Amino acid sequence: MDLHIHSTYSDGNAEIHEIARKARERGMKVIAIADHSMDHPRGLNERKARRREVEIRTAEEKIGIRILDAVECAILENGEILLPDHDFELVIASIHSHLSVREVCRRVKLCIEKNDVHIIGHLHAGMFSVDSSISEFDLEIVDAAKESGVAIEINSYHMSPPESFLRLCSGKEILYSFGSDAHNLSMVGKIDFSIRMAKIYLRDGRNIVNEMHYSDR
Ligand SMILES: [Zn+2]
Ligand SMILES: [Zn+2]
Q1: Judging by beta carbons within 10 Å of its beta carbon (0-12, 13-18, 19+), is residue 76 exposed, middle or buried?
Q2: CA distance linking residue 214 with residue 191, whole number of Å
Q3: Residue 35 Cα, ligand 2 centroid: separation in angstroms?
Q4: Model confidence, pTM
Q5: Residue 30 sits in a domain of what CATH number?
Q6: How far is CA 123 from the centre of its chain?
Q7: 91 Cα: distance to centroid of ligand 1 (angstroms)
Q8: What is the CA(29)–ligand 2 centre distance, in A?
Q9: Ligand lying closest to the C-alpha of residue 4
Q10: What is the pLDDT of residue 127?
Q11: Which residue from 139, 137, 49 is spatially nearest to 91, judged by alpha carbons?
Q12: Distance from the CA of 5 to the center of ligand 1, in angstroms?
């Protein structure tokens, strides 16, 4: 499964039916099209989300693969997220600004408290971090995720979270998800890093796909 793919509905350059076909070719049974939300200049609004849902359902039926109608939103300063009025099946909340680990921790915890999100995307991705992972703050994030049942994404494109963070997850029953963060067809289903990290650090964790019984639908 690959639960983090961008399409032409935000800043990806592949169409939904092309993504679905490529994912099936690569042996995926469940994927999530997680385009950016309203915080992004090319993100989803209500009209786009509605149109996209129709395309998702059509591709799902034609190509025979489960496709989740998902969204990736930024975690804002007050921990809030911006979403169009649409019933998404999966919400990924990610930090998209350059921040210290302390500030990331504060925002992620607030976001989990205030919103109904399913996954925290690419935590401490190098692109958005000003300092490396710090265990006291990381432990607070791990605990918040565990208590709330929010999944930690292992993102193969950003190669995040870093191993120092994943080490804190080992031995704990936390939820996790796999994502390629594909913005083009060749990246769809490229989740080798995610699988490798889960095998090492998340033996006691649970994959969100199995938890939410997406594969049965
Ligand atoms: Zn992102
Ligand atoms: Zn993304």
Answers
A1: middle
A2: 18
A3: 7
A4: 0.96
A5: 3.20.20.140
A6: 10
A7: 12
A8: 20
A9: 2
A10: 83
A11: 49
A12: 10
Which residue type is seen at 202? L
**DSSP conformation class of 182:** B
**Domain limits for position 88:** 2-216
Contacts 24+ apart (CB under 8 A), 52-60: 52/7, 52/9, 52/16, 53/86, 55/16, 55/17, 56/16, 58/17, 59/16, 59/17, 59/19, 59/20, 60/20
Distance between CA atoms of 22 and 24, rounded to whole angstroms? 5
Instruction: Provide the number of structural domains found in the chain.
Output: 1
pLDDT in tens, 160-190: 999 999 999 999 999 999 999 999 999 999 9
Would you say 186 and 154 are in contact if contact means Cβ atoms under 8 Å apart?
A: no
* Tokens of residue 110, six digits: 């607030």
Q: What is the pLDDT of residues 66-117, one digit of tens each?
A: 999 999 999 999 999 999 999 999 999 999 999 999 999 999 999 999 999 9
CA distance 67 to 57: 8
Cα of 203 from ligand 2 centre, angstroms: 25
Say how many Å lie between the CA of residue 4 and the centre of ligand 1.
9
* Amino acid letter, residue 53: E
Ligand 2 centre and the CA of 34: distance in Å?
7
